[in-house]
Design brief:
The protein is α/β, with parallel strands linked by helices. The chain has three helices and five strands. The protein has one domain (26-165): Double Stranded RNA Binding Domain (2-Layer Sandwich), CATH 3.30.160. α2 packs parallel to α3.
């Protein structure tokens, strides 16, 4: 008599629980959200490296188009991303025995405004930063593209996680 009751409870428990897995890192309700609009992120920092704006925009749009089923638009998406690159700077990180800089730290900060038109409680404005260090004996122009690309990848991952990954 107890076994049928246990089996019934077990069956009810299994049907009442559901587990959802997403292998692309996003948790989007595609019934409500079908598109994302991403505006250009102009450079508003004192120090400017012109290719950075296009590199950032391309990597950001690629992340959403490759990792989600969202249509990427220029304007009026269900999700909206806008902002500006507010800091691009370099500072001495460490000093060598001769008293000169041994390492230089490069930093990039992006201010992001996110609007979720289906769930406005998820809206935010936030700054995302990344840093990288290079040997001061190298010229910045020789390593700049690779370092900026590395920082952009980091910041794009941070933005993606904050907007659609819901970790």
């Amino acid at each position: 008599m107890k076994k049928p009751l246990i089996y019934t409870l077990f069956a009810l428990l299994l049907t009442a629980c559901s587990v959802s897995y997403s292998f692309n890192g996003s948790s989007i309700n595609y019934d409500k959200v079908k598109s994302i609009s991403i505006e250009n992120f102009p450079i508003r920092s004192a120090y400017v490296w012109a290719p950075m704006e296009a590199m950032f925009y391309n990597d950001l749009t690629d992340a959403y188009s490759h990792k989600t089923k969202l249509r990427v638009l220029k304007k009026n998406g269900d999700l909206q991303l806008s902002g500006e690159i507010v800091e691009y700077s370099q500072t001495n990180k460490s000093v060598a025995a001769d008293g000169f800089s041994a390492q230089t730290q490069l930093k990039m900060t992006v201010n992001v405004r996110f609007v979720n038109n289906s769930e406005h409680k998820d809206d935010f404005e936030q700054r995302f930063s990344a840093t990288t260090v290079y040997d001061s004996s190298q010229q910045l122009v020789a390593v700049q593209e690779a370092l900026v690309d590395e920082m952009i990848d980091d910041i794009v991952d941070q933005i993606f996680n904050a907007t659609v990954a819901n970790w």
